[in-house]
Amino acid sequence: MTGEEEVRKAYESILGQDYEEAAAWFRKAIEQDPGNGEYHYKLSITCARSGKIDEALALARRAQDLDPGVEAYSIQVRTLEGKRLAAKAERMLAGGAQHVPLAASYLRRAVRLDPLEEGPYVLLAAALARMKEYREAAAVLRELLELNPEHGGAQSMLEQMRNMTSENLED
Fold first, then answer.
1. Containing H/E element for 5?
2. Closest alpha carbon to 129 in 158, 152, 91
3. Burial class (CB in 10 A: 0-12, 13-18, 19+), 139
4. Are 143 and 123 in contact, with CB atoms under 8 Å apart?
5. Cα dihedral angle (149, 151, 155, 156), rounded to 10 degrees?
């Protein structure tokens, strides 16, 4: 088989919702043509869908190295780096107050890397509120509400912060 035939089989597996089998076919395509960035990219997407963020990130970086001019590969790298940082920060936030400032730093970077992903905004606002940085937390929540005006959690958190502090959080 050629790499393209393996990719076709991978898509058949995806349509059948068998992502592990799809990943195996993408790996076979890479074996056929290891210099094809598109194959690495497609496997990266499949791994990310399966929650294998570190593997997906390594594959996306490989695709980017092979074809540095492809914007989709760069976007995939940034998105996955943001997910990895947000997951790390979430674990840190569960670990205690001493980790909150570093977690907030990771979350700020995650928001910059993937400004369309809503989860890091909420986590960042929560971390900032724990640090009593209410104005910045409110600003993060307002930014999220600009992105998604229907985000009920953000609106609720903003109301809670308004009730917790006498500060004017509208600035």
1. helix 3-15
2. 158
3. middle
4. no
5. 160
Consecutive 10-residue runs of the chain (171 residues): their mean pLDDT?
89 96 98 96 96 97 97 98 97 94 98 96 97 95 96 91 71 53
Q: In the chain, what are the domains?
A: 1-69 (1.25.40.10), 82-171 (1.25.40.10)
Cα–Cα nearest to 28, from 59, 2, 66, 67: 2
Q: What DSSP assignment string belongs to 51-114?
A: T-HHHHHHHHHHHHHH-TT-HHHHHHHHHHHHHHHHHHHHHHHHT-GGGHHHHHHHHHHHHHH-
Residue with tokens 């670990």: 95
Please count the other Cβ atoms lying within 10 Å of the Cβ belonging to residue 96.
Answer: 8
Contact 65, 59 (CB under 8 A): no
